């Protein structure tokens, strides 16, 4: 299997990403639009991708655990039952399965994403312990 190298995800033009259209659960105006590029590894045990979102607010439920590394911009996530967490380019975040949140992006946001693929989810895979940055 070949190795895929992306030298600088922040420099990939938005036009190179698959347009996913408006977010599914927007909260007011402007309505965020998203685009992404997904690479499926091996037998589907791991999904790796690049995701971008224009400014706005939205609701999201993460069904599978995800690891994200933010490569451009900043945002705030308001986890249900938790305090708002500010995220900036260079930060990494781990979201547990079945977590719900509100996302707030004031400028176009870009991040890398790693999560179990369909094959791993079928096997009941779960991540190890994760830590959340306590910064406000």
Quick gist of this model?
It contains one helix and ten strands, in the order ββββββββββα. The protein is mainly beta and 136 residues long.
Task: Provide a descriptive summary of the structure in words.
With 136 residues, this protein is mainly β. The chain has a single domain (19-121), classed as Sandwich (Jelly Rolls), CATH 2.60.120. It is built from one helix and ten strands. The protein has a six-stranded antiparallel sheet with strand order 1-2-3-10-5-8. A four-stranded antiparallel sheet has the order 4-9-6-7, with no helix packed on it. The chain is globular, with a radius of gyration of 15 Å. The protein starts with 17 loop residues before the first strand and ends in a 14-residue tail after the last helix.
Distinctive features:
136 residues, mainly beta, globular, disordered C terminus, 4-stranded antiparallel sheet
Total count of strands: 10
In round numbers, the mean pLDDT is 78
> Which range does the strand content fall in?
over 45%
Q: Strand count, sense and closure of the main sheet?
A: 6 strands, antiparallel
Oligomeric state of the chains in view: single chain
Structural class: mainly beta
**Alpha-carbon Rg, integer:** 15 Å
Please name the CATH architecture. Answer: Sandwich
